[in-house]
Amino acid sequence: MQTITLNDGNKMPIIGYGVFQIDKNQTQKCVEDALSVGYRLIDTAAIYDNEEGVGAAIKSSGIRREEIFVTTKLWINNINKNDAKQAFHTSLKKLGLDYVDLYLIHQPFNDVYGAWEIMCELKKDGFIKSIGVSNFYSDRLTEFCFNNEVKPALNQVECHPFLPQFDAKKVMCDLKVVMQSWASFAEGKNNIFSNDVLKNISKKYDKSIAQIILRWLIQREIAVIPKTLSKDRMIENMSVFDFILDVSDMEAIAKIGQSQYIICDHRNIDTVNFLLNLAK
Length: 280
What we know:
The protein is built from 11 helices and 10 strands. By secondary structure, it is an alpha/beta fold.
């Protein structure tokens, strides 16, 4: 498994299995399947309401805990100095673990500085190996890094061929923050799986469009966490290390992009109100 090194020295698999929008009654089986086919990074969050299933799958897998990289996230209502510690320990209890490998501020709202202070303490105490953020745009991430001694190890953002995030990637490289893509397949929007450019490239390499997209991201040193309920698709999504896209194909995919947020624009007031209301 290819890994990527975080700015605190910890190593993380460059591809993982995400459980966003997986029903809590299906999560354990899906994660068991993912682990059985070779995934060693599992990404969940408090708001997903399926941390218990992730923990149960890890326990039943028989795989040594230190071989599995577990990410979970702090939701908006608990992103503050008073509630962050209890929220973390609630997640830890649901997961049934002694520590998590990566803990993220899920959204750039509420008291992110207060929450970060608590996360730094939890990291120092050994409950968290690495800490990071999610959905921080370049200006907010730069300001956050500038004002904190401990820098985020990772920033998880929407990134796919319609939103290639080239400028954001450069900023993160300069800040030594790893980029991780969520919605790598744009949640199927804009007919991504029938896109002519991607179809032609997939035929050239005898790979699926999903594999081409994941390979394109990985070659840019962007970590990925694709989600699927299908074990066959899990295997397919993992099988992206036996080919390399040439420069012309990398550039062709880069030109697809419309550079617009099509899943979640955090500067759109309706999106912000929606996310804040979820926290109630």
